[in-house]
Design brief:
- The chain is mostly helical.
- The protein has a domain at about 80-220: Tetracycline Repressor, domain 2 (Orthogonal Bundle), CATH 1.10.357.
- It is built from ten helices and no strands.
- The N and C termini lie far apart (about 50 Å).
Length: about 240
């Protein structure tokens, strides 16, 4: 958990009057403006890609949806592929920030896994267009863009597998293959965009908790005869 803020000495009224906050430079303001404009364009593009399809959406349609001239659009994104890469990068940034936040809070492996599942599913509420684009159009990126995006994807997978491994080591989880278990978690969460609808019967947190229950406890009832140990896997020939 985060620590409470520490008390700091407060300047007196005279000091406050003579020490105004530093003014932002025009260059800083322009950079912030540019970032906000790029994000707006990417958000509108993701909505169009989600509704009409990536290949069916033109740069002219994106410019109209974002409320900018085509020349302005090309200034920020010289190609539709660069918008696609921006969406991928923003999507991964949200998830990686979440991973770091959970680690910084000192959560247990079980808590970190649940929070990560919630983060993935919550993107269906906060970034619905981004989710479909991320999962369906990775192959549309250039080879160079895929090479740039892949390490973040790999890091995400390795971190989740590492969380499961840590849970095995502390006795929270039983001894399973961490990589295979990670594939199971991602399989459940990543596919949800096909059926999850914001504002439906369950929100993302509820779905994550139910997925967590299914993954952690399975489907078999306590005392079920089917809970007997599984037979050994026969050796391959």
């Amino acid at each position: 958990m985060s620590q409470p803020p520490t008390a700091t000495a407060q300047p007196d009224a005279g000091e406050r009057a003579t020490a105004p906050p530093p003014r932002r430079s025009r260059a800083d303001a322009a950079r912030d403006n540019g970032r906000e404009r790029r994000k707006l364009i990417a958000d509108r593009s993701a909505e169009l890609f989600n509704r009409d399809g990536y290949h069916q959406t033109s740069m002219a349609q994106i410019a109209a949806a974002a409320g900018v001239a085509k020349a302005t659009l090309y200034h920020y994104f010289p190609s539709k592929g660069q918008i696609l890469f921006f969406i991928h990068d923003e999507f991964m940034g949200v998830l990686l920030d979440g991973l770091q936040s959970h680690a910084d809070r000192g959560l247990t492996p079980a808590q970190r896994l649940l929070e990560t599942m919630t983060d993935i599913l919550r993107l269906n509420e906060t970034h619905p267009g981004h989710v479909r684009v991320f999962f369906e159009h990775f192959r549309e990126l250039t080879a160079e863009e895929q090479a740039a995006a892949t390490p973040k994807r790999d890091f995400m997978f390795a971190t989740v597998a590492g969380i499961i491994r840590a849970g095995i080591e502390d006795g929270t989880f039983r001894d399973v293959d961490p990589d295979l278990a990670a594939f199971e978690i991602f399989g459940m969460c990543n596919w949800a965009y096909q059926w999850f609808r914001p504002g439906g019967l369950m929100d993302a947190k509820t779905v994550a908790e139910k997925f967590w229950d299914y993954a952690a406890r399975g489907l078999l009832a306590e005392g079920s005869a089917a809970r007997r140990p599984a037979p050994a896997v026969p050796p391959t020939v």
